[in-house]
């Protein structure tokens, strides 16, 4: 369900080095040009969640979201966490197409 790459585990270990470990939520965050993306937050699971233990950490994810993505891998990239779904999220078809510039998308 949730895979944790070694680099991501190291980052979590460093973050929780002087704190009590708490549950980590994988959730769908609004996106800009690329549409929605997966993100992480500290949050306790609820009855709508599936939970998993990996790398010594407890993860929660909404059951419907998990059904859609079938799982995810947590990595570190560009100085932060990147959550890559097993099945790609649909693009919202939004935003950054160059409207207002020389693009003809707004005709």
Describe the structure.
It is a single chain. The protein has a single domain, classed as Hypothetical Protein Aq_1857, Chain: A (Sandwich), CATH 2.60.300.12. 16% of the residues lie in helices and 36% in strands. It contains two helices and seven strands. It has helices spanning 6-15, 63-69; strands at residues 2-4, 24-29, 37-42, 49-54, 57-62, 72-77, 80-85. The strands form two sheets. A four-stranded mixed β-sheet has the order 3-2-5-4. It has a three-stranded mixed β-sheet with strand order 1-6-7. Strand 2 and strand 3 (37-42) form a beta hairpin. The longest helix has 10 residues, at 6-15. The protein starts with a strand and ends in a 22-residue tail after the last strand.
Chain-wise SSE layout:
Layout: E1 2-4, H1 6-15, E2 24-29, E3 37-42, E4 49-54, E5 57-62, H2 63-69, E6 72-77, E7 80-85
Parallel strand pairs: 1-6, 2-5
Antiparallel strand pairs: 2-3, 4-5, 6-7
For the largest beta sheet, what order do the strands appear in spatially? 3-2-5-4
Unreliable stretches, pLDDT < 50, 5 or more residues? Answer: 98-107
- Assembly type of the shown chains? single chain
Major sheet description: 4 strands, mixed
Q: Which fold name fills CATH's third level, the topology?
A: Hypothetical Protein Aq_1857, Chain: A
Number of strand elements: 7
Number of helices: 2
Distance between the termini: 45 Å
Output the structural class.
alpha/beta
CATH architectural name: Sandwich
Q: Please estimate the helix content.
A: 10-25%
What Rg, in angstroms, do the CA atoms define? 17 Å
Provide the β-strand percentage band.
35-45%
Under CATH, the homologous superfamily reads: HesB-like domain
Question: Strand-and-helix sequence, N→C?
Answer: EHEEEEHEE
CATH class: Mainly Beta
Number of domains: 1
How much is the average pLDDT?
Answer: 86
* Principal-axis shape: globular
């Amino acid at each position: 369900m949730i895979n944790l790459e070694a680099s991501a585990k190291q980052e979590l270990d460093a973050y929780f080095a002087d704190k009590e470990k708490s549950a980590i939520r994988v959730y769908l965050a609004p996106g800009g040009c690329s549409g929605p993306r997966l993100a992480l937050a500290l949050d306790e699971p609820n009855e709508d969640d599936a939970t998993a233990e990996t790398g010594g950490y407890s993860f929660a994810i909404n059951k419907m979201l998990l059904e859609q993505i079938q799982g995810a891998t947590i990595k570190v990239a560009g100085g932060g966490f990147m959550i890559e779904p097993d099945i790609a999220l649909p693009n919202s078809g939004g935003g950054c197409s160059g409207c207002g510039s020389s693009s003809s998308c707004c005709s």
